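B., you asked whether I could sanity-check this one before it goes into the benchmark set. Here's the sequence:
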Amino acid sequence: MKAIVQDIYGPPEVLRTDEVDRPAARSGEVLVQVEAAGLGPEVWHLVAGMPRVVRLGTGLGRPRHPVAGRDLAGRVVEVGEGVTEFGVGDAVFGTGWGTFAEYARAPVSRLARKPDRVGFAAAGAAPVSGLTALQALRDKARIGPGDRVAVIGAGGGVGTFAVQIAKIMGAEVTGVCGTDKTDLVRSLGADHVVDYPREDFTATPDPYDAIVDTAGHRSVRALRRALAPRGTLVIVGSETGGQWLGGLQRSMGSALLAPLTGHRMPLFLSTEERADLEALAEYMADGRLSPVIGRSYPLEEVPEALRRWAEGHARGKTVITIGTGE
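And here's what the prediction gave me:
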Protein backbone atom coordinates (compact mmCIF):
# COMPACT_ATOMS: atom_id res chain seq x y z
CA MET A 1 0.00 0.00 0.00
CA LYS A 2 1.01 3.65 -0.36
CA ALA A 3 2.06 5.41 2.86
CA ILE A 4 3.99 8.39 4.23
CA VAL A 5 7.05 7.12 6.08
CA GLN A 6 10.08 8.42 7.96
CA ASP A 7 13.32 6.72 8.99
CA ILE A 8 14.59 9.46 11.30
CA TYR A 9 13.22 12.32 13.37
CA GLY A 10 13.39 15.75 11.84
CA PRO A 11 11.61 18.46 9.82
CA PRO A 12 8.86 17.67 7.28
CA GLU A 13 11.54 16.88 4.70
CA VAL A 14 12.24 13.54 6.44
CA LEU A 15 8.83 12.32 5.25
CA ARG A 16 8.46 10.54 1.93
CA THR A 17 5.86 8.56 0.00
CA ASP A 18 6.67 4.84 -0.23
CA GLU A 19 5.13 1.43 -0.84
CA VAL A 20 4.93 -0.65 2.36
CA ASP A 21 3.25 -3.89 3.38
CA ARG A 22 -0.43 -3.59 4.23
CA PRO A 23 -0.86 -4.23 7.98
CA ALA A 24 -3.18 -6.86 9.47
CA ALA A 25 -5.63 -6.34 12.30
CA ARG A 26 -4.45 -7.80 15.61
CA SER A 27 -6.50 -8.90 18.59
CA GLY A 28 -8.82 -6.09 19.69
CA GLU A 29 -8.17 -4.11 16.52
CA VAL A 30 -9.68 -3.47 13.12
CA LEU A 31 -8.03 -2.60 9.83
CA VAL A 32 -9.45 0.57 8.32
CA GLN A 33 -9.31 1.66 4.70
CA VAL A 34 -8.49 5.29 5.38
CA GLU A 35 -10.51 7.98 3.62
CA ALA A 36 -9.21 11.00 5.55
CA ALA A 37 -6.80 11.80 8.37
CA GLY A 38 -6.30 14.98 10.39
CA LEU A 39 -2.98 16.77 10.73
CA GLY A 40 -2.10 18.95 13.71
CA PRO A 41 0.54 19.55 16.38
CA GLU A 42 0.52 15.90 17.44
CA VAL A 43 1.85 14.97 13.99
CA TRP A 44 4.59 17.59 14.12
CA HIS A 45 5.74 16.36 17.54
CA LEU A 46 5.85 12.72 16.40
CA VAL A 47 7.68 13.53 13.16
CA ALA A 48 10.20 15.85 14.81
CA GLY A 49 10.56 13.75 17.96
CA MET A 50 10.25 16.99 19.91
CA PRO A 51 10.08 17.68 22.75
CA ARG A 52 12.41 14.80 23.43
CA VAL A 53 10.14 13.35 26.10
CA VAL A 54 7.86 12.05 23.32
CA ARG A 55 10.61 9.67 22.25
CA LEU A 56 10.08 7.63 25.40
CA GLY A 57 6.94 6.34 23.71
CA THR A 58 7.88 6.55 20.04
CA GLY A 59 11.48 5.33 19.98
CA LEU A 60 14.63 6.87 21.44
CA GLY A 61 16.94 6.86 18.43
CA ARG A 62 14.48 6.62 15.57
CA PRO A 63 10.71 6.25 15.14
CA ARG A 64 9.45 2.86 16.25
CA HIS A 65 6.49 3.20 13.87
CA PRO A 66 7.79 4.62 10.56
CA VAL A 67 4.36 5.45 9.09
CA ALA A 68 3.09 8.84 10.28
CA GLY A 69 -0.43 9.92 11.31
CA ARG A 70 -2.91 9.53 14.21
CA ASP A 71 -6.42 10.74 13.25
CA LEU A 72 -8.45 8.67 10.81
CA ALA A 73 -11.86 8.17 9.26
CA GLY A 74 -12.69 5.34 6.90
CA ARG A 75 -14.29 1.91 6.51
CA VAL A 76 -13.47 -1.31 8.33
CA VAL A 77 -12.06 -3.94 5.96
CA GLU A 78 -10.84 -6.52 8.50
CA VAL A 79 -11.56 -7.34 12.15
CA GLY A 80 -9.11 -8.86 14.59
CA GLU A 81 -9.66 -11.63 17.10
CA GLY A 82 -12.30 -10.88 19.74
CA VAL A 83 -13.74 -7.82 17.98
CA THR A 84 -17.53 -7.61 18.15
CA GLU A 85 -18.05 -3.84 18.21
CA PHE A 86 -17.52 -3.29 14.47
CA GLY A 87 -17.86 -5.31 11.29
CA VAL A 88 -16.50 -5.15 7.77
CA GLY A 89 -17.99 -2.19 5.93
CA ASP A 90 -18.69 -0.05 9.01
CA ALA A 91 -17.77 3.63 8.67
CA VAL A 92 -15.69 4.70 11.69
CA PHE A 93 -13.52 7.53 12.98
CA GLY A 94 -10.97 7.79 15.77
CA THR A 95 -7.24 7.22 16.16
CA GLY A 96 -4.90 4.52 14.96
CA TRP A 97 -1.29 3.84 14.04
CA GLY A 98 0.22 5.10 10.82
CA THR A 99 -2.92 6.73 9.44
CA PHE A 100 -1.20 8.60 6.59
CA ALA A 101 -1.62 5.49 4.51
CA GLU A 102 -4.22 3.67 2.45
CA TYR A 103 -4.85 1.25 5.35
CA ALA A 104 -4.23 1.58 9.10
CA ARG A 105 -4.69 -0.50 12.24
CA ALA A 106 -6.82 0.94 15.03
CA PRO A 107 -7.84 -0.42 18.45
CA VAL A 108 -11.62 -0.65 18.82
CA SER A 109 -11.36 1.23 22.13
CA ARG A 110 -10.34 4.33 20.16
CA LEU A 111 -13.01 4.21 17.45
CA ALA A 112 -16.64 5.24 17.10
CA ARG A 113 -19.17 4.96 14.30
CA LYS A 114 -19.14 7.87 11.88
CA PRO A 115 -22.50 9.66 11.74
CA ASP A 116 -24.19 9.26 8.36
CA ARG A 117 -24.57 13.00 7.86
CA VAL A 118 -20.87 13.67 8.47
CA GLY A 119 -18.38 13.29 5.62
CA PHE A 120 -15.15 11.37 6.01
CA ALA A 121 -13.04 14.54 5.79
CA ALA A 122 -14.96 16.20 8.64
CA ALA A 123 -14.86 13.02 10.73
CA GLY A 124 -11.11 12.66 10.09
CA ALA A 125 -10.58 16.18 11.44
CA ALA A 126 -12.37 15.49 14.71
CA PRO A 127 -10.61 12.87 16.88
CA VAL A 128 -7.48 14.41 18.43
CA SER A 129 -8.56 18.07 18.32
CA GLY A 130 -12.17 17.37 19.27
CA LEU A 131 -11.26 15.11 22.18
CA THR A 132 -8.72 17.66 23.43
CA ALA A 133 -11.31 20.45 23.42
CA LEU A 134 -14.02 18.30 25.02
CA GLN A 135 -11.85 17.01 27.85
CA ALA A 136 -10.25 20.39 28.56
CA LEU A 137 -13.65 22.06 28.92
CA ARG A 138 -15.63 19.30 30.61
CA ASP A 139 -13.08 17.50 32.78
CA LYS A 140 -10.55 20.21 33.66
CA ALA A 141 -12.35 23.53 33.34
CA ARG A 142 -15.62 21.92 34.53
CA ILE A 143 -17.66 24.58 32.81
CA GLY A 144 -21.43 24.82 33.10
CA PRO A 145 -24.30 26.97 31.85
CA GLY A 146 -23.62 30.67 32.22
CA ASP A 147 -19.89 30.37 32.88
CA ARG A 148 -17.71 32.96 31.16
CA VAL A 149 -15.08 31.11 29.11
CA ALA A 150 -12.23 32.48 27.02
CA VAL A 151 -10.70 30.30 24.30
CA ILE A 152 -7.24 31.46 23.20
CA GLY A 153 -6.37 30.35 19.69
CA ALA A 154 -10.06 30.11 18.87
CA GLY A 155 -9.49 29.92 15.11
CA GLY A 156 -7.12 26.94 15.21
CA GLY A 157 -7.61 23.18 15.18
CA VAL A 158 -8.47 22.71 18.86
CA GLY A 159 -9.86 26.21 19.26
CA THR A 160 -12.61 25.86 16.67
CA PHE A 161 -13.84 22.75 18.46
CA ALA A 162 -13.53 24.42 21.87
CA VAL A 163 -15.67 27.42 20.91
CA GLN A 164 -18.48 25.19 19.65
CA ILE A 165 -18.34 22.69 22.51
CA ALA A 166 -18.31 25.46 25.13
CA LYS A 167 -21.47 26.86 23.53
CA ILE A 168 -23.05 23.40 23.57
CA MET A 169 -22.33 23.33 27.31
CA GLY A 170 -24.13 26.66 27.78
CA ALA A 171 -21.14 28.92 28.38
CA GLU A 172 -20.72 32.55 27.39
CA VAL A 173 -17.74 32.29 25.07
CA THR A 174 -15.06 34.80 24.18
CA GLY A 175 -12.90 33.70 21.26
CA VAL A 176 -9.39 35.15 21.13
CA CYS A 177 -7.81 34.98 17.69
CA GLY A 178 -5.91 36.85 14.98
CA THR A 179 -7.44 39.46 12.72
CA ASP A 180 -7.85 37.05 9.79
CA LYS A 181 -9.95 34.64 11.87
CA THR A 182 -12.41 36.94 13.64
CA ASP A 183 -15.22 36.31 11.15
CA LEU A 184 -14.67 32.54 11.36
CA VAL A 185 -14.77 32.51 15.17
CA ARG A 186 -17.88 34.68 15.20
CA SER A 187 -19.56 32.26 12.77
CA LEU A 188 -18.91 29.39 15.21
CA GLY A 189 -21.15 31.04 17.79
CA ALA A 190 -18.70 32.94 19.98
CA ASP A 191 -20.52 35.61 21.99
CA HIS A 192 -17.49 37.90 21.92
CA VAL A 193 -14.43 37.92 19.65
CA VAL A 194 -11.16 39.55 20.63
CA ASP A 195 -8.66 40.45 17.90
CA TYR A 196 -5.54 39.88 20.00
CA PRO A 197 -3.07 41.99 17.93
CA ARG A 198 -5.34 44.98 18.54
CA GLU A 199 -6.86 44.29 21.93
CA ASP A 200 -5.63 42.80 25.21
CA PHE A 201 -8.30 40.35 26.32
CA THR A 202 -6.70 40.04 29.78
CA ALA A 203 -7.66 43.66 30.48
CA THR A 204 -11.34 42.71 30.75
CA PRO A 205 -13.33 44.27 33.64
CA ASP A 206 -15.36 41.03 33.84
CA PRO A 207 -13.01 38.16 34.71
CA TYR A 208 -13.46 34.71 33.21
CA ASP A 209 -14.54 31.61 35.06
CA ALA A 210 -12.26 29.58 32.80
CA ILE A 211 -9.55 30.20 30.22
CA VAL A 212 -8.57 27.46 27.78
CA ASP A 213 -5.25 28.36 26.19
CA THR A 214 -4.51 26.49 22.96
CA ALA A 215 -1.94 29.00 21.67
CA GLY A 216 0.64 29.04 24.44
CA HIS A 217 2.33 32.44 24.18
CA ARG A 218 1.04 34.51 27.10
CA SER A 219 2.56 34.27 30.54
CA VAL A 220 0.63 32.44 33.24
CA ARG A 221 0.77 35.61 35.32
CA ALA A 222 -1.01 37.59 32.57
CA LEU A 223 -3.65 34.89 32.14
CA ARG A 224 -4.32 34.75 35.87
CA ARG A 225 -5.10 38.47 35.86
CA ALA A 226 -8.10 37.74 33.64
CA LEU A 227 -9.44 34.92 35.84
CA ALA A 228 -12.17 35.16 38.45
CA PRO A 229 -10.95 34.57 42.04
CA ARG A 230 -11.78 30.85 41.82
CA GLY A 231 -11.33 30.54 38.07
CA THR A 232 -9.60 27.77 36.14
CA LEU A 233 -6.76 27.98 33.63
CA VAL A 234 -6.28 25.00 31.31
CA ILE A 235 -3.13 25.08 29.19
CA VAL A 236 -3.86 22.79 26.26
CA GLY A 237 -0.95 23.42 23.95
CA SER A 238 2.26 25.35 23.68
CA GLU A 239 5.18 25.32 21.29
CA THR A 240 7.33 27.19 23.80
CA GLY A 241 9.71 25.59 26.25
CA GLY A 242 12.93 23.60 26.09
CA GLN A 243 13.91 20.62 23.96
CA TRP A 244 13.09 18.08 26.64
CA LEU A 245 9.65 19.06 27.91
CA GLY A 246 8.54 21.72 25.42
CA GLY A 247 5.02 22.97 26.14
CA LEU A 248 4.65 20.54 29.05
CA GLN A 249 7.09 22.74 30.95
CA ARG A 250 4.57 25.59 30.99
CA SER A 251 1.65 23.36 31.93
CA MET A 252 3.58 21.60 34.69
CA GLY A 253 4.83 24.90 36.06
CA SER A 254 1.31 26.31 36.35
CA ALA A 255 0.05 23.13 38.01
CA LEU A 256 2.80 23.36 40.63
CA LEU A 257 2.01 27.05 41.21
CA ALA A 258 -1.74 26.50 41.61
CA PRO A 259 -1.73 25.50 45.33
CA LEU A 260 -0.16 28.87 46.12
CA THR A 261 -2.98 30.77 44.41
CA GLY A 262 -6.76 30.81 44.49
CA HIS A 263 -6.91 29.50 40.94
CA ARG A 264 -7.22 25.99 39.57
CA MET A 265 -4.51 25.23 36.99
CA PRO A 266 -4.62 21.47 36.45
CA LEU A 267 -2.09 19.60 34.36
CA PHE A 268 -3.82 18.53 31.16
CA LEU A 269 -3.10 15.59 28.87
CA SER A 270 -5.87 14.40 26.58
CA THR A 271 -6.85 10.74 26.20
CA GLU A 272 -8.48 8.81 23.37
CA GLU A 273 -11.60 6.96 24.48
CA ARG A 274 -14.62 5.61 22.62
CA ALA A 275 -17.15 7.20 24.98
CA ASP A 276 -15.81 10.67 24.23
CA LEU A 277 -15.64 9.95 20.49
CA GLU A 278 -19.29 8.92 20.70
CA ALA A 279 -20.08 12.25 22.40
CA LEU A 280 -18.41 14.07 19.49
CA ALA A 281 -20.36 11.89 17.06
CA GLU A 282 -23.62 12.86 18.75
CA TYR A 283 -22.77 16.56 18.55
CA MET A 284 -21.85 16.25 14.87
CA ALA A 285 -24.88 14.11 14.03
CA ASP A 286 -27.38 16.71 15.27
CA GLY A 287 -25.50 19.61 13.71
CA ARG A 288 -24.34 21.32 16.90
CA LEU A 289 -20.67 20.66 16.06
CA SER A 290 -19.15 21.20 12.62
CA PRO A 291 -15.42 20.50 12.20
CA VAL A 292 -13.68 23.39 10.48
CA ILE A 293 -11.36 22.26 7.68
CA GLY A 294 -8.90 24.96 6.74
CA ARG A 295 -7.08 23.12 3.95
CA SER A 296 -7.06 19.62 2.48
CA TYR A 297 -4.10 17.90 0.85
CA PRO A 298 -3.69 14.57 -0.97
CA LEU A 299 -1.57 11.88 0.68
CA GLU A 300 1.54 12.65 -1.39
CA GLU A 301 1.56 16.23 -0.11
CA VAL A 302 1.77 15.46 3.62
CA PRO A 303 5.30 16.97 3.88
CA GLU A 304 4.06 20.22 2.33
CA ALA A 305 0.93 20.18 4.53
CA LEU A 306 3.06 19.78 7.67
CA ARG A 307 5.46 22.48 6.51
CA ARG A 308 2.57 24.90 5.96
CA TRP A 309 1.04 24.01 9.32
CA ALA A 310 4.36 24.64 11.09
CA GLU A 311 4.46 28.16 9.65
CA GLY A 312 1.53 28.96 11.94
CA HIS A 313 -1.81 30.72 11.64
CA ALA A 314 -3.71 27.67 10.33
CA ARG A 315 -7.48 28.10 10.13
CA GLY A 316 -9.25 25.16 11.71
CA LYS A 317 -7.91 21.70 11.02
CA THR A 318 -5.71 20.51 8.17
CA VAL A 319 -6.93 17.27 6.60
CA ILE A 320 -5.21 14.68 4.43
CA THR A 321 -7.57 12.98 1.98
CA ILE A 322 -6.56 9.45 1.01
CA GLY A 323 -9.87 8.40 -0.52
CA THR A 324 -12.59 10.74 -1.71
CA GLY A 325 -12.94 12.28 1.75
CA GLU A 326 -16.69 12.56 1.17
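One thing to flag: The chain has two domains: 2-126+291-321, 129-260. Otherwise nothing jumped out at me.
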